[in-house]
Automatic annotation (TrEMBL):
<dbReference type="InterPro" id="IPR022998">
    <property type="entry name" value="ThiamineP_synth_TenI"/>
</dbReference>
<keyword id="KW-0479">Metal-binding</keyword>
<dbReference type="Pfam" id="PF02581">
    <property type="entry name" value="TMP-TENI"/>
</dbReference>
<dbReference type="InterPro" id="IPR034291">
    <property type="entry name" value="TMP_synthase"/>
</dbReference>
<feature type="domain" description="Thiamine phosphate synthase/TenI">
    <location>
        <begin position="10"/>
        <end position="178"/>
    </location>
</feature>
<dbReference type="GO" id="GO:0046872">
    <property type="term" value="F:metal ion binding"/>
</dbReference>
<keyword id="KW-0460">Magnesium</keyword>
<comment type="similarity">
    <text>Belongs to the thiamine-phosphate synthase family.</text>
</comment>
<keyword id="KW-0808">Transferase</keyword>
<comment type="pathway">
    <text>Cofactor biosynthesis; thiamine diphosphate biosynthesis; thiamine phosphate from 4-amino-2-methyl-5-diphosphomethylpyrimidine and 4-methyl-5-(2-phosphoethyl)-thiazole: step 1/1.</text>
</comment>
<dbReference type="GO" id="GO:0009229">
    <property type="term" value="P:thiamine diphosphate biosynthetic process"/>
</dbReference>
<dbReference type="GO" id="GO:0004789">
    <property type="term" value="F:thiamine-phosphate diphosphorylase activity"/>
</dbReference>
<dbReference type="InterPro" id="IPR013785">
    <property type="entry name" value="Aldolase_TIM"/>
</dbReference>
<dbReference type="InterPro" id="IPR036206">
    <property type="entry name" value="ThiamineP_synth_sf"/>
</dbReference>
<dbReference type="GO" id="GO:0005737">
    <property type="term" value="C:cytoplasm"/>
</dbReference>
<protein>
    <recommendedName>
        <fullName>Thiamine-phosphate synthase</fullName>
        <ecNumber>2.5.1.3</ecNumber>
    </recommendedName>
</protein>
<dbReference type="GO" id="GO:0009228">
    <property type="term" value="P:thiamine biosynthetic process"/>
</dbReference>
Length: 196
């Protein structure tokens, strides 16, 4: 799995950052009318296809399917509503969020393409009920998931990413450290270098 996993909140970020050499990006759209969501997913797929970048669509698995995307990310609540039979039948891979051992057991029972553990560090992106997991939990998660790729997420930065990978994560996902950087392009290049 790609080590550098970029997550963005709007397709405009994909247009801006994917051409720099990003190979794995999640489009995580929130609070947006559904027609606009579809339009963004469609454009994101076009850009990612043109740059040999894997697009992962967050939450909107049905639209992802209709727009011929092949990878989605689902959280525990998303999983309640998802039709895994339909997702599998369409050959769509999926990554699943986990925050505790119960969620991990549940996630692994679906045979996901990856499991995400978060928040590794405190995040300012969204309010979360879980305390930061820390690096020891990353190592423990990797022992438990075995060959299933593990994504570390939450409060990650260029400076923190190497420690999360060394602790056992196969991939490190990031929003704020890039999207709110003074120079997001320069920060993206630093991430690519750090994770190469
Ligand atoms: C790689 C990755 N890990 C975790 C999440 C969080 O998913 P979820 O819990 O469904 O929360 P939202 O992102 O939908 O707010 C993620 N998106 N990506
Ligand atoms: C969207 C998300 N999910 C998390 C989880 O633990 O499931 S942490 C998180 C936020 C990641 O953003 P940042 O890099 O800005 O902290
Ligand atoms: Mg979700």
């Amino acid at each position: 799995m790609e080590k550098f996993y970029l997550i963005v909140g709007h397709v405009d970020w994909i247009a801006r950052l994917v051409p720099l050499g990003v190979k794995l990006v999640q489009l995580r759209i929130k609070d947006t009318p559904i027609d606009e969501v579809r339009a963004q997913i469609r454009r994101a797929k076009q850009i990612c296809d043109a740059h040999d970048c894997q697009l992962i669509v967050n939450d909107y698995w049905q639209i992802a399917m209709e727009e011929h995307c092949d990878f989605v990310h689902l959280g525990q609540e998303d999983m309640d509503a998802a039709d895994f039979e339909a997702i599998r039948a369409a050959n769509i891979r999926f990554g699943l969020s986990t925050h505790d051992e119960g969620e991990l057991d549940r996630a692994l029972s679906f045979n996901p393409a990856y499991v995400a553990l978060g928040p590794v560090y405190p995040t300012i992106l969204k309010k979360m009920k879980w305390a930061p997991q820390g690096l020891e939990r990353v190592t423990r998660w990797k022992q438990m998931v075995g060959d299933v790729p593990l994504v570390g997420i939450g409060g990650l930065s260029v400076e923190r990413a190497p420690g999360v990978l060394a602790a056992g994560a196969d991939s490190v996902a990031v929003v704020t450290d890039i999207q709110f950087a003074d120079d997001p392009e320069a920060r993206t290049r630093e991430w690519i270098k750090t994770c190469s």
